[in-house]
Design goal:
Layout lengths: L7 E2 L10 E2 L20 H12 L4 E9 L3 E8 L5 H13 L9 E5 L11 H4 L5 E6 L4 E9 L3 E7 L19 E4 L3 E6 L5
Parallel strand pairs: 4-5
Antiparallel strand pairs: 1-2, 3-4, 6-7, 6-10, 7-8, 8-9
Length: 195
């Protein structure tokens, strides 16, 4: 149920409690009633998500609440997140919020391809994939994720260019595996591959 604003004015001589609607004039509308703009609280959603995911390998990545209570919950897991995981969480959240008190739009999904890795545990399921990294000094590195260590990730550096020419076996060279500490990583994204 969406919140609607109806301006009401009591008619002179009308009985108490009886009101008539009137249309706003050009100068009205600068004051917004306090009930307009009620936003769903991220903390409330976070508690519900963590409660539902407790004891599973799934975890909360982000909550985004946009104007109009358009709420997006992003979850990930140590194993793949499937549609049933998203539907189950969505139903749980909706069953614990009162649509009569506050109207909202809810979507639950896993991180998209363009969403950066935010937690150390997200690296594990991406071993063997190419990562595009931006370091704290704004240097960019791309590489195949070889291993996840306690202090950082081990990658086999690759060229940053997408249109890399394949080298013949005789021309290929071994590249050293590089350990990149977690604290040096500003952003990490999994590179999409259509091979």
């Amino acid at each position: 149920m969406a919140t609607r604003l109806i301006l009401v004015q009591k008619s002179p001589g009308s009985s108490p409690g009886r009101t008539t609607e009137r249309k706003p004039t050009k100068c009205e509308g600068t004051r917004v009633p306090s009930f307009i703009g009620i936003m769903i609280e991220k903390g409330q959603i976070k508690r519900l998500v963590e409660n539902h995911l407790e004891g599973t390998d799934k975890f909360l990545v982000d909550i985004i609440v946009k104007p109009g209570n358009k709420t997006m919950v992003i979850i990930d897991g140590d194993t793949a997140v499937n549609i049933d995981d998203c539907k189950s969480l969505s139903r749980f959240i909706e069953s614990n919020l009162d649509r009569e008190a506050e109207d909202f739009e809810l979507s639950v999904s896993s991180p998209g391809a363009d969403y950066p890795i935010q937690f150390k545990r997200q690296y594990n399921k991406n071993i063997g994939r190419i990562l595009d990294l931006v370091l704290n000094d704004d240097n960019k590195i791309a590489g195949k994720l070889i291993a996840v260590a306690k202090t950082g990730i081990e990658i086999e550096p690759r060229p940053l260019e997408e249109k890399k020419k394949k080298l013949k076996k005789a021309e290929s060279t071994e590249t050293a595996i590089t350990l990149i500490p977690y604290q040096n990583i500003k952003q990490a994204k999994v590179r999409i591959s259509f091979k």
